[in-house]
Amino acid sequence: MSAMVKLRGVHKSFGALHVLRGVDLDVRQGQVLVILGPSGSGKSTLLRTINHLEKVDRGSVHVDGQLLGYRQAGDRLYELPEREVLRQRTQIGFVFQSFNLFPHLTVRQNLMEAPLSAQRRPRAEVAPLAERLLARVGLADKADAYPRTLSGGQQQRVAIARALALEPKLLLFDEPTSALDPELVGEVLDVIKDLARGGTTMIVVTHEIGFAREVADTVAFMDAGRIVELGPPSQLLDAPAHERTRTFLSKVL
Length: 253
Ligand code: ADP
Ligand code: MG
Fold this sequence. Notes:
- The protein is of the alpha/beta class.
- The protein has a domain of 67 residues.
- Strands 8-9-10-3-11-12 form a six-stranded mixed β-sheet, with helices on both faces. The chain has a four-stranded antiparallel β-sheet with strand order 2-1-4-5, covered by helices on one side.
- Helix 6 links the parallel strand 9 and strand 10.
- The site of adenosine-5'-diphosphate has 11 residues, from strand 2 and helix 1.
C-alpha cells in the first residue's frame, strides 16, 4: 500500500521552546495510527504540521505524495501561495477536542459550508451528501438544529460529519473525546471505529487505550517531541520496549 503520510526529520520550535525534535513517521493508505503521550509532548503540534496549520522549521511533510506548503523545482523549494495551501488543507480533515462548529449555522449548514465555499461544489451535489453523512453519524433528525441545542457527543459527531463532507484523503483527530462527559465518549468512538473499518486513513491522538487496542493498526508513543516507539497495539501496549512508555502506560491504564 502507498504512503499517505510521510514525515522526515521534522523540527518545530515556538521561540526558545523546541517542541518537535526530529519526527519521522509513515502512515500507509487505509492505516489507523493512534498516538499516545503525556500532555505537552507535542502531539497537537505534530497533527497541526500534517495539516500545515504549523509550518515546520526543518524537515518535510508529504501527504499522498505531495510536499505540503511547497513546490519543488529541481533542487529548489518555493512556498506555495495561500490559496494552494488551503486547497491542500481541504484534503485533510481535522477534528478538534472542542468541536469548533459554526454556532450561527444549523447542522446541515455546518456540513455544507466548506464544500460549497472552499471546494465550489454544486449545491445539488452537496445537499444529498450532507444528508448521507448525517445519517452515517446517526444524526439525520438533527439537520435543522443549531449546535448549542445538541449534546457534546452529538456536536462532535457533527464535527466528524463536517470533516467527511470534504471527502478528505486523511482524517486527523486531536483528542476527540477529551471534552466529553464519560457517558458520551462511546457514541463518538463508535463513529470513529466505523470509519476505520471503512478504510479511512486516520491519525488519532487519544488517551483511550481500549480504543487504541481495538482499532489501531499501529500505536505510537510520543514524549518530549519525539516518537519514542511505535508498533502494533499488542506490542506497544503489552510489551513496550522503553521505560518511558511503561511509566506512561502505568499511569493511564
Ligand atoms: P500536546 O498536544 O502533546 O499536549 P502540544 O503540541 O499542544 O502538546 O504542545 C507542546 C508544547 O508546545 C507545549 O509546551 C505548548 O505549550 C507549546 N505550544 C504549542 N503551541 C504553541 C504556540 N502556538 N505557541 C507557543 N507555544 C506553543
Ligand atoms: Mg494536545
